[in-house]
Write a structure and sequence with these properties.
Number of strands: 12
Strand content: 15-25%
Structural class: alpha/beta
Helix content: 25-40%
Order of helices and strands: EEEHEEEHEHEEEHHHHEHEH
Largest sheet: 5 strands, mixed
């Protein structure tokens, strides 16, 4: 049986899926802890262990090519990792080391690209020719899919809208700029803004539950809607996707799909905005399914 294998490398868990090449239903799925606190070499060995366990459980032999979704991205010129929140990966030749560990070719894309690819091929944007997949969680990232293929770009940063300036002269970002999209639209940024207004720390879920009764919570939501529209309109004006899929914890905020869409419409350079903005269908399965789709 010809199969597609995908690996989703996360900060806390590593997951592998095996899918038939002609079906959307997985044959096998397995996950283990990343144990990233034990260092880079240990993570690479954990990936090897997981693939070995899948072979034993499924009776299948690993293919000659496996897709891997990673935090951050590989620099095309060097193959070294960058922008990873699992910081021990940064500066390391992860694709080459995984290929050596597994004895097969590796196709790598970042987690946002994998989300976009999964939702474009199996999920909420299935059938669309141009898709922008968004992750708005602890950080803000994005991935582009055109005709069922990930668009990585010359520097491996295509779709990285989170580190464009949204508020000039705003808060300092770790990337070196000030007022980045990520600082404003991430769950972390929303919680920080709420605390700056109320003096209280609350989770994003608590803040959203308090809208309508807590003026600081309402102000946090209103600010999100206003800046989301402005920020996402830039992506629409440049890439003009058919569908935008909003993943991550912030993507669960229902108002983004009503008031957020209206906010974007005011900024889009057209008389009518035809881009659909939708929630994901695949949840936390998107990363590993997208990794498998990398080798389709």
């Amino acid at each position: 049986m010809e199969t597609l294998w995908g690996i989703d490398l996360g900060g806390t868990k590593i997951e592998c899926v095996v899918m038939p090449i002609d079906s959307d239903e997985p044959l096998f799925r397995m996950r283990i802890d990343t144990e990233s606190d034990q260092g880079y070499e240990h993570i690479v060995k954990r990936i090897g262990l997981l693939v070995h366990q899948i072979e034993q459980a499924s009776g299948l032999k690993r293919p000659t090519r496996i897709g891997v979704g990673t935090p951050g991205a590989a620099e095309p010129a060097t193959g070294l990792m960058k922008n990873c929140n699992t910081t021990c990966l940064n500066g390391m030749p992860l694709p080459a080391d995984i290929a050596s560990e597994l004895g097969c070719e590796i196709v790598v894309a970042n987690d946002a690209n994998c989300l976009a690819l999964a939702e474009a091929t199996l999920g909420a944007a299935k059938g669309a020719e141009t898709v922008f997949g968004v992750i708005m969680g602890t950080g803000v990232g994005g991935g582009l899919v055109v005709h069922g293929r990930v668009l990585n770009g010359a520097q491996g940063i295509a779709g990285e809208w989170g580190h464009n300036v949204l508020i000039p002269g705003g808060e300092q970002c770790y990337c070196g700029k000030k007022g980045c999209v990520e600082l404003v639209l991430s769950g972390t940024g929303l919680q920080k803004f709420y605390k700056s207004q109320s003096g209280e720390h609350r989770t994003l879920r608590e803040i959203m539950q308090r809208t309508g009764q807590d003026p600081h919570a309402q102000a946090t939501l209103d600010r999100l809607i206003a800046y989301f529209g402005e920020a996402i309109s830039v992506v629409i004006n440049i890439f003009d996707p058919e569908v935008i899929v909003l993943g991550g914890g912030v993507g669960n905020i229902a108002a983004l799909y009503s008031d957020g869409v209206k906010s974007a419409e005011k900024w889009v350079f057209n008389t009518q905005m035809r881009t659909k903005i939708v929630p994901p269908l695949l949840g936390d399965s998107a990363g590993v399914f997208g990794a498998a789709m990398l080798v389709r």
